[in-house]
Amino acid sequence: MATSVLAPALQKEDLNPFQIAMHQFDLAAEKLGLDPGLREILRRPHRWLTVTLPIKMDDGTIKVFEGYRVQHNCARGPCKGGIRYHPNVTLDEVKALATWMTWKCATVNIPFGGAKGGIICDPKALSKGELERLTRRYAFEIAAVIGPDRDIPAPDVYTDSQIMAWIMDTYSMSLGSNSPAIVTGKPVFLGGSLGRNEATARGCLFVIKAAAAVKGLKLRGAAAAVQGFGNAGSIAADLLFHEGVSIVAVSDSHGGIRNLQGIDIPVLLDYKRKTGSVVNFPGTTPIDTEEVLSQPVDILIPAALENQITIHNALKVKASIVAEAANGPTTPGADAILREKGIMVLPDILANAGGVTVSYFEWVQDLQELFWDEDDVNRRLERVMVKAFEDVYRMATIYEVDMRTGAYILAIERVATAMKVRGIWP
Ligand code: GLU
User: Fold this and answer.
1) Annotated catalytic residue within 116, 124, 218, 318
2) The two domains 45-189 and 199-351 share their CATH topology (first three levels equal)
3) Is 116 a catalytic residue?
4) Helix, strand, coil percentages for the chain (3-state, nearest 5)
5) Does the beta carbon of 81 lie inside 6 Å of ligand 1?
6) Which CATH class is domain 45-189?
7) Domain boundaries, the chain
8) Which of 83, 151, 156, 161 maximizes ligand 1 atoms within 8 Å of its Cβ, making it the mutation to test the pocket?
């Protein structure tokens, strides 16, 4: 097994996301007494593809980008997972994210395995035309391994419904027939689902509510801080604000802001739309993005990138609930510290699973060519998230472990059962 998470908090941490994913897996596999052969299989992705993407830039030059699609496991159904555009994408990061998708889909019990894609690029530095050409070339290159019953991409960090529309169009054009179920997170008028855009945040709210009930915390009047103000963070802040939660600090990639009396989130959303950032929002004090994590709040939502809560700042976390809207925001060393402090961490594979759950609803609607109203989507999402919280909480109680390990045990058991019954081919 990798180094124990209970090792002294001052040791240097391994911040490689794939090593972290393996460490979390090992911890749960050990508790579960998982068969060594299955453990060996699940410790690595089933398949990974690296693609070279030459793109004609607007100024006539050619730039070459690198992209990935990783499929971790498909025992429970087609692989599923988003595509990330970011300058710091690495193959190991995409492998970790694909692995987390396997556990996420199993935690909420939807019939998918895990995958993830990424392109090393700075989408903010590309024109719309360059972004479209990059996306179409990438879609064409990975078309060999994706498909509505093989692997279904979706949005992730810095990708959106427009990018999904280009992927859907490229795939459909090369096929010669319309294939909306090839991606989820599409625009609603192209076969997307109502409620998909808000689903990650809404799912997060449902599990926060369930956790608050367990912790005896009243949401109305509680305080929260949100790190990251993208699709998940900004909508989660808004939903909590409308539940009467006081949002006292938020940040985005440019910096953070604080007002201990509470920030008016609907006005902030408008401000961010106009200025491109939350920074300098009137009535707030500037703080740095890391400071958001140590505010005097009941609920902390890391909604940015990996490795934010580490051994260096975990001791300063004051929240009683940490809800991971981001993937991989807490390192194993930090996990151990938060556990010692009695903080309930709602792990990413539970807390942000609302996105892929409504992706599943979108895929079902596309295949049926029958679309649901938003209330229907949200009601179904609530059922899935509440059930998943209860299942994870039960596992954590039975095995006397934290919620992350509880979720892993639940998920690994479901995937392992599918693998055992299917058997190893040939
Ligand atoms: N990228 C999201 C995630 O990390 C959504 C994936 C999906 O909908 O397939 O869960």
Assistant:
1) 116
2) yes
3) yes
4) 50, 20, 35
5) yes
6) alpha beta
7) 45-189, 199-351
8) 156
- Residue 34, amino acid: L
Q: Is any atom of ligand 1 closer than 6 Å to the C-beta of 230?
A: no
SS3 state of residue 254:
coil
| Cβ contacts of 265 within 8 Å, gap of 6 or more | 237, 238, 240, 241, 247
Instruction: Give the Å distance between the CA of 156 and the centre of ligand 1.
Output: 6
Q: What is the pTM (predicted TM-score) of this model?
A: 0.97
Q: Does any ligand 1 atom lie closer than 6 A to the CB of residue 197?
A: no
- One digit per residue, the tens of pLDDT, for the chain of length 426 reads 334 444 444 468 999 999 999 999 999 999 999 999 999 999 999 999 999 999 999 999 999 999 999 999 999 999 999 999 999 999 999 999 999 999 999 999 999 999 999 999 999 999 999 999 999 999 999 999 999 999 999 999 999 999 999 999 999 999 999 999 999 999 999 999 999 999 999 999 999 999 999 999 999 999 999 999 999 999 999 999 999 999 999 999 999 999 999 999 999 999 999 999 999 999 999 999 999 999 999 999 999 999 999 999 999 999 999 999 999 999 999 999 999 999 999 999 999 999 999 999 999 999 999 999 999 999 999 999 999 999 999 999 999 999 999 999 999 999 999 999 999 999
The residue nearest atom 7 of ligand 1, judged by CA position, is 356
422 HSE (CA, 13 A, CB side): 15
- Name the fold adopted by 199-351: Rossmann fold (3.40.50)
Which residue has tokens 């690994």?
412
